[in-house]
Each structure stands twice: as structure tokens, then as C-alpha cells.
Amino acid sequence: MHPSYLRQFHASQIFHAIRTSPGVSQKELIDLTGCDKSTISVIIKRFEEIGLVERITGTSAGKRGRPSEMLRISEMSGLLMGVHLEFECLRFVAANLDGQPFSSKDAPLPQAPEDLADNVRAGIVELCAEIGRDLSEIRAIGIALPGLVGQTGGLAQSSNLSWSKVAVPELLRSKLGAPVYVDNDTNAATLAEFLFGECSQLSDFIMLDGGRGIGGGVFIDGRLYRGKNGFAGELGHIKVVKDGRQCGCGSSGCLSAYLSAPAMIARVRRTTEVQTLADILALAASGDSDVLLVLEESGEFLGTALASLINIFNPPAIVLGGVLADMWPYISARTARVIEREAMQAPREQTEILVSKISNAKVPWGGVALALEGFSSLDPAESMPW
Ligand SMILES: [Zn+2]
Predict the structure, then answer these.
(1) How far is the CA of 247 from the centre of ligand 1 (A)?
(2) CA-CA distance, 272 to 295, in Å (whole number)?
(3) Cα separation, 80 vs 269, whole angstroms
(4) DSSP string, 318-376
């Protein structure tokens, strides 16, 4: 291993340890990272020089004794920006370098991809003005796109936006003045689960995230699995019904054609008038038998998809986000029974089904996760903050 890569690796490890354990002492970092004392002290010194980390004096939570010096990511060390292209709008999210979002803003989505760069720049400028921070403080920008995103960050296809073959990084990089990291929105949400959510201690897990469609993320050996050109993980298109409902992908019988929010609304509407998924959940909570029947059936479909994923990947965890997390209380029992029936016993017993706590937050975390991952990247071609 090249010494500069090793140093970068240790710096990244130490940065994330301080980020996830604010108030940690230099001594505790030895146990948290496995790095030796002198490596830690050299890297912390460098972090202090560039204003990334600051020392505070206090007593660690739950500990008695003399106050000691504790480390945390400096609040003024820089900004991360998340940008989400959603169905209805552009969403901008600002976070400090610890990755915790603290402010957000929505703007209209441009009709034409050519206008994207100017609109994204304008939104970032406005958000920075609102929070009283300077554009030059932005260390990285993460862009989450709804559709298939290739290895180089280009949007290959998006049925939500009706855009195809848009070279997003090229459009944005010259306009934004900070490194830009682009990925599919569910990959971004999967990364957010690893960096901030339920799967922060796991190097392998699967994410299924439900919204207008159902997206998936496959996290293997501490990184997203992307396949040949970045399109891997379209787990919402696992077939759960032979010759079933038509799906937005052009095929039929996909999980997404049954459990996405629009699919749920369409299926419930066969018997009951509803406008939103919230209507469905409210009716379920009141014990509406027609709605509960549709949810039971949904649990069956989800169980079939999860059983396949368990058999294929033997993941320690599958995390459910978005509408799947919302519906989970009503579908979990049926889903569990189907998994019991359809997944092989040995991998089944090793897989935990988790419900995401951040996927339904008011502000999406994925864009910031992409920015944070890029900022602390081990790729020597990218800018190295340390
Ligand atoms: Zn499909």
C-alpha cells in the first residue's frame, strides 16, 4: 500500500470517528480506529491546522474525574451541500462537515436539463445567503438524481423527470466551484443509512426505499455495489407476480408496480377513495377491512422480494425506507411469514429487517451523504482535504 494512500485511509478513519463520536479524546481514538498514538497525533495536528477539528475542554458523558480535552468537527470548518432532484422540486440541504443537515430550501425544478446548472447554482447561492455562510465554505456538493445514473454520474434515464442521457456532472462542475458527486437517489439514501442511520456499524446490507417508485441499494464490503456501469441495485423491479401489474420500467409484475406510493393508491382505490398514502395509513389505523386486505397482500409481495434478496445475498440486514417504513406496522407480520416460507433457513436466521429512521425525515439526507463520502474519499484523483 502506498504511504500516501495509507495516510489518507487513516485520516479518513479518524475524521469519521470524531464525526460519529463528537467529544472523543485523542486516547479513545486509538481504540476506535486501531491507529497508533503517533499516527493519531500527527493527523489531529494537521486537522487542527486546516481548521477541521477543534479541541474543547470538558468531561466525557457518563465519566467522572478531571475535565479533559475532547475533539469535535469544527462548526465553521466548512459546508456540505445536498441537492435533490425530486418529482416536484429541487431541494437544497446544508450541513456542516459532521454531515448533520441544519437548513434546507426548495425551488422549482427546471423543465429543461440545460437550465439545471443555473438553477442549482442559484439555489445554493440563496441558501448560503439565508444561513449567512459564504459560497467559498462549500467543501463538496452531492447531487441525488431520480433515475439510472452511470459510473461517471450521468443521468441515463429518468421516468420521473422524463429526462434521458443528461451529463449532470459536466453541466454542473464548471458552474459550482466545489467538487460535485452525483448518484442515484436510492444509492444516496443507502449511503446515508451507512453514514448516519441504522446501518452505521454494518459493512454489508441491502436498502429498499419506497416513494414514487421503489429503489434499492446494495452495500457490500463497505461500499455501494454498482455493477458494470452503475445501474445495479434496481431491487424495486424484482418480479413478485407473473404477468402482473404494468410497471414504469416497461415490464410487469415488479415489486414497484405494487408497493410504490402511486401503486398502493391505485390498488386501494379499487374499493376505497383515497388521495395519498397518508389516507391509506389513516384508514388502516382505523381498522378499515378493505384497506387492511390490500396491506396484507402487500406484505405477501414484499415478503417474496425480501426472501429472494436473503437467498441471493445472505445480508446481515435489510433496511426499509420511505413508504415501506410507513407501511411496515401493517405489513410486517405477513412479510415475516412469507420470508419464513420462501427464504432458506440458514441465511434467513441471519438477516435482520430494519426500519429506517432517517428516510422519512423532513429533509433528505442522501445528497449530504454523497457530499460527505466524496469529501472524505480515498480516491487520490479527488481533492484531498488533508
Ligand atoms: Zn419494474
Answers:
(1) 5
(2) 13
(3) 42
(4) EEEEEHHHHHHHHHHHHHHHHHHHHS-HHHHHHPEEEE-SSTTSSS--HHHHHHHHHHT
CA 236–ligand 1 middle distance (angstroms): 7
Mean per-residue pLDDT pooled into runs of 10, the chain (386 residues)? 76 92 93 93 92 84 70 92 91 94 93 87 96 94 88 74 79 84 93 94 96 95 90 95 95 98 98 97 98 98 98 97 97 98 95 95 93 79 54
23 Cα: distance to centroid of ligand 1 (angstroms): 46
For every residue of 257-320, DSSP letters joined together read: HHHSHHHHHHHHTTTS--SSHHHHHHHHHTT-HHHHHHHHHHHHHHHHHHHHHHHHH--SEEEE
Q: Which domains does the chain have, with CATH numbers?
A: 3-73 (1.10.10.10), 79-190+363-375 (3.30.420.40), 200-355 (3.30.420.40)
Say which residue the cell 465519566 belongs to: 63
| Residues in the 5 Å CB sphere of ion ligand 1 | 237, 247, 249, 251, 254
The type of residue at 39 is T
**Ligand 1 mean position, distance from CA 69 (Å):** 54
How many A from CA of 47 to the centre of ligand 1? Answer: 47
| Ligand 1: centre distance to CA 213 (Å) | 9
The C-alpha cell at 190 is 443507502
**Amino acid (1-letter code) at residue 219:** F
**Residue 302 CA, ligand 1 centroid: distance in Å:** 14
Q: 43 C-alpha to center of ligand 1: Å? A: 48
**Cα dihedral sign, 38-44-50-56:** negative
C-alpha cell, 272:
376505497
The contacts of residue 321 (CB under 8 Å, 6+ apart) are 189, 193, 207, 208, 209, 210, 356, 359, 360
Grid coordinates representing 37?
Answer: 498514538
Output the CA 234–ligand 1 centroid distance in Å: 9
Whole-angstrom distance, CA of residue 226 vs CA of residue 219: 9
